Amino acid sequence: RDYIDRHHTLAATRWRGASGEIDLILRNGAQLVFVEVKKSSSFARAATRLGRRQMDRLVGAASEFIAQEPNGQLTDMRFDLAMVDGRGRIGIYCSRTERPVDRYAL
Fold first, then answer.
1. What Å distances lie between residue 29 and 39, 72, 103, CA to CA?
2. d(CA 12, CA 84)
3. pTM
C-alpha cells in the first residue's frame, strides 16, 4: 500500500523464475523495484530473516525478470526489504539509501 501511495505501479506479486520468487515487483517510472517482504516480532528480527542465499536467489530472479524488459540488464532497478513487525507496522529498507525509508502503522 505504501508503494501505491507513492505512485508506484504494481508489476507482479509472487513472481517466480528459475532462480526463485520475488514477493513484489513495482514500477517507479522507468525504474523497477524488487521487494522482499519479511515479518517478525520486530524490524530487527525481520531484517535478519533475509540471508545471503536468499539475496542471491532474489538477484538471480530479478535478472530473469529484467531480461524481458526493453533495456534488459541496463534497466534501472533497486531492491527493497519491507519489514512488518508484530504490531503491523511497516519499515522499508531501500538499497539506494542504505537506511530505513518509512515506518508507519497499517
1. 28, 16, 23
2. 20
3. 0.85
3-state secondary structure of 55: helix
How many Å apart are CA 73 and CA 76, to the nearest integer?
Answer: 8
Per the DSSP assignment, residues forming a β-bridge with 91 are 83, 103
Q: Per-residue pLDDT tens for 35-80?
A: 999 999 998 899 899 899 999 999 999 999 999 999 999 999 999 9
pLDDT digits (tens, 9 = 90+) for 12-42: 999 999 999 999 999 999 999 999 999 999 9
CB 100 within 8 A of CB 90: no
Q: Give the separation between CA 44 and CA 23, rounded to whole angstroms.
A: 19
Contact predicate 88/45, CB 8 Å: no
Q: What is the residue-wise DSSP string for 28-53?
A: ETTEEEEEEEEE-SSHHHHHHT--HH
